[in-house]
Amino acid sequence: MSSRREFITLLGGAAAWPLAARGQQGAMPVVGLVGGGGGDVSTRYVIAFRKGLNETGTIEGQNALVEYHWLAGQYDRLPSLMPIFDSAIY
User: Fold this and answer.
1) How confident is the model over 36-79, as pLDDT tens digits?
2) Residue 88 class from Cβ within 10 Å (0-12 exposed, 13-18 middle, 19+ buried)?
3) Under a CB-based contact definition with an 8 Å cutoff, are residues 22 and 88 in contact?
4) Beta-bridge partners for 64
5) Three-class DSSP labels, the chain
6) N or C: which end of the chain has fewer CB within 10 A?
């Protein structure tokens, strides 16, 4: 059950915060990925996420930046991440 909740949180985070970088010439888009677990537990989700990005022609570090944030089960930290994502919109 925890894995399912973690996956849904991860998927929701990935879908909810694709942030396109705007303004400066040559700036890369920034995508925020939020996982409900710890980074070590979520490796398979990150691999699947990167695969999905690659399938759309998005390659981390080449034409997009990815910000990873892990909640480690502390879902009350989620609201504190919102300003980070808001400030990433250029």
Assistant:
1) 888 676 788 889 999 999 999 999 999 988 888 888 889 998 88
2) middle
3) no
4) 60
5) CHHHHHHHHHHHHHHHCEECCCCCCCCCCEEEEEECCCCCCCHHHHHHHHHHHHHCCCCECCCEEEEEEECCCCHHHHHHHHHHHHHCCC
6) N
